[in-house]
């Protein structure tokens, strides 16, 4: 039984003659971890900014928790939009206090979230003394203040070092395990692939695709094969249905398996035909490759 | 009510630690106290009349309100700094995301304006009482006669502050907002006023705001004193000393504050943050 958390219906936003987003629709259900993907300028942040009520849509509508999005529905969401925005002269603690006051909850939660992102020791220092990565951590801490039902994270890995990225990924996965609904915009596809259950793909303000990560990733499985006698290998694939040669580089071929079998079956058939492979490696397209393909098509 | 309390708490949390806020409030207080101290103590003479006459009860109310109004422009600038810095830090956007509504953004800043205007009244009131007690009382007149000018001072300060908020939300940039604010007082409005009769001109916003706290009638006060000394000429001589409050200007300014507030509501409702 899925409960609708957010529904975006035919949302459009123009800045003068430029259509920043054009007729975007998608829904997010409770417990989903949704990645909004798209190249720079594809409308990810604009979409989120409208959903959070800071920008007005030119057309279309959105709802949160089955009702019209308002300041009150925002209180139930922990959101980070673009870069962290805090009072530079206030300490981390006081900055989070302003967030808690605005949200109407979380005043007693400040220490916990600061510990969670590893900034507790710095709680008395002013925001302006932080590094970019630390500012990002504080922004993520702010989203978790008061334990909201939904997290909206726009480029959460921005400015973080590899260790920080891994930590934030763990944190997001933890929150997802606790049943939180998470909407995250990113252009780092690897991150989305590791974390998200669903994706929405945007380009030039249009929604190219949306759905489960698994469903969007369905494609012909591919394997990389290498053999000393490359010609007989090519002959084999050309004379056997169910395979296509996708790519050839030197003694290596990338083969698409169309008949639904797998690399083990292929290895057996080749061996039975007298061809010994020196290398066999299943190739799964990364989300990145698929995304680039989709974006090119779009 | 609880909402307003929370909003003011939030404003306090971010305003109190703001360096510009502290600097401007300190400057305002120091300048005001210095002018009062110097004015009342130096024993300056103008055409043989001692200036310190202006600092005795009940003239002190109008004199100090008039002095306080010199620095109200400074408070308008403070308000501009407070509002535009939120645009600069993009913290208005953050507050909206965190669940503050657009009208609440305005109510919070309006609350700050009211508190600052009350601060002006409080500092004028305490300084006037202290000065009056030290300097004495003009004869035959109640010490508190004309104290209602403090209400007018409050309205004037509020008008400057609300105008500061309006300019900030329209312009967003700190330097340009301050420039617009100052240029509006001089020369933009005076030039426009020049095309109208002085009766009509008196209803222009900047003119009516600054007309609220006129300079005390220095020579009237001096003359009143002379008349009082020569009792035989003065059946109702003290009437000359009464501070002059233009209630028409006061109402005009209240109407302007309301208009500024409506304009702000419309601007903030439409704005993309």
Report what the structure shows.
The complex is a heterodimer of chains A (298) and B (273). Chain A is of the alpha/beta class and 298 residues long. Chain A has two domains: 4-216, P-loop containing nucleotide triphosphate hydrolases (Rossmann fold, 3-Layer(aba) Sandwich); 222-285, Alpha-Beta Plaits (2-Layer Sandwich), CATH 3.30.70. Chain A is built from eleven helices and 14 strands. Chain A has helices at residues 44-51, 71-74, 92-103, 110-116, 132-144, 162-177, 189-195, 213-216, 230-239, 263-272, 287-297; strands at 4-15, 18-29, 33-37, 59-64, 67-68, 77-80, 150-154, 181-186, 198-203, 206-212, 222-226, 243-249, 252-257, 279-283. In chain A, strands 6-7-8-3-9-10 form a six-stranded mixed sheet, with helices on both faces. In chain A, a hairpin with a 2-residue loop joins strand 4 (59-64) and strand 5. The longest helix of chain A is centred in the middle third of the chain and has 16 residues, at 162-177. Chain A is elongated and about 75 Å long. Chain A starts with a strand and ends with a helix. The mean pLDDT of chain A is 90. By secondary structure, chain B is an all-alpha fold. Chain B has one domain (2-270). A two-stranded antiparallel ribbon of chain B has the order 1-2. In chain B, strand 1 (45-46) and strand 2 form a beta hairpin. In chain B, helix 2 (19-41) runs parallel beside helix 6 (102-135) and helix 4 (72-88) runs parallel beside helix 7. The radius of gyration of chain B is 21 Å and the shape is globular. In chain B, 38% of the residues are buried. Classes of the chains: A alpha/beta (298), B mainly alpha (273). The A-B interface holds A 49, 52-56, 70-72, 74-75, 77, 79, 81, 85-90, 94, 97-99, 101-104 and B 6, 9-10, 13-14, 17-19, 89-91, 93-102, 104, 270, 272-273.
């Amino acid at each position: 039984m899925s409960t609708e958390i957010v529904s975006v219906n035919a949302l459009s936003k123009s800045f003068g003659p430029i259509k920043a987003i054009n007729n975007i629709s998608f829904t997010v259900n409770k417990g989903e971890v949704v990645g909004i993907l798209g190249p720079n300028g594809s409308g990810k942040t604009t979409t989120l900014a409208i959903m959070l009520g800071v920008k007005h849509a030119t057309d279309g509508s959105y709802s949160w928790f089955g009702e019209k999005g308002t300041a009150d529905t925002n209180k139930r969401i922990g959101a980070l939009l673009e870069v962290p925005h805090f009072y530079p002269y206030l300490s981390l603690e006081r900055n989070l206090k302003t967030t808690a006051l605005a949200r109407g909850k979380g005043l007693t939660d400040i220490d916990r979230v600061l510990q969670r992102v590893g900034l507790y020791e710095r709680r008395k220092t002013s925001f302006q003394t932080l590094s970019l990565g630390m500012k990002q951590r504080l922004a993520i801490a702010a989203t978790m203040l008061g334990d909201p039902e939904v997290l909206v994270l726009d480029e959460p890995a921005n400015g973080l070092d590899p260790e920080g990225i891994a930590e934030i990924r763990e944190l997001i996965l933890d929150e997802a395990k606790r049943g939180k609904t998470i909407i995250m915009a990113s252009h780092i596809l690897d991150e989305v692939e590791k974390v998200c259950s669903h994706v929405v793909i945007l380009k030039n303000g249009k929604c190219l695709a949306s759905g489960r990560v698994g469903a969007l990733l369905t494609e012909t499985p591919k394997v990389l094969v290498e053999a000393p006698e490359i010609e007989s290998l090519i002959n084999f694939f050309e004379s056997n249905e169910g395979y296509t040669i996708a790519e050839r580089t030197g003694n290596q071929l990338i083969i698409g398996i169309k008949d639904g079998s797998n690399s083990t079956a292929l290895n057996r058939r080749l061996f039975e035909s007298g061809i010994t492979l020196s290398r066999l490696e299943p190739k799964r397209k990364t989300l990145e490759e698929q995304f680039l393909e989709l974006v090119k098509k779009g | 009510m609880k909402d307003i309390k929370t909003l003011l708490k939030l404003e306090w949390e971010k305003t109190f630690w703001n360096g510009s806020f502290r600097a401007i409030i300190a400057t305002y207080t120091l300048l005001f106290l210095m002018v009062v101290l110097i004015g009342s103590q130096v024993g300056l003479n103008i055409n043989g009349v001692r200036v310190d006459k202006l600092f005795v009860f009940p003239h002190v109310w109008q004199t100090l309100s008039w002095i306080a109004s010199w620095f109200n422009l400074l408070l308008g600038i403070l308000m501009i700094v407070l509002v535009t810095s939120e645009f600069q830090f993009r913290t208005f956007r953050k507050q909206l995301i965190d669940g503050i509504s657009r009208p609440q953004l305005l109510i919070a800043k309006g609350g700050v304006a009211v508190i600052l205007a009350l601060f002006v009244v409080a500092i004028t009131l305490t300084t006037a009482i202290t000065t009056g007690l030290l300097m004495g009382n003009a004869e035959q007149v109640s010490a508190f006669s004309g104290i209602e000018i403090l209400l007018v001072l409050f309205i004037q300060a509020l008008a400057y502050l609300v105008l500061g908020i309006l300019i900030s939300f329209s312009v967003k940039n700190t330097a340009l907002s301050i420039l617009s604010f100052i240029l509006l007082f001089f020369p933009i409005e005076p030039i426009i006023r020049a095309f109208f009769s002085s009766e009509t001109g008196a209803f222009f916003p900047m003119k009516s705001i600054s007309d609220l706290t006129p300079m005390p009638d220095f020579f009237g006060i001096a003359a009143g004193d002379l008349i009082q000394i020569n009792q035989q000429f003065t059946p109702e001589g003290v009437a000359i000393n009464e501070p002059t409050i233009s209630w028409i200007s006061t109402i005009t300014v209240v109407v302007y504050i309301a208009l500024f507030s409506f304009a702000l509501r419309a601007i903030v409702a439409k704005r993309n943050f």
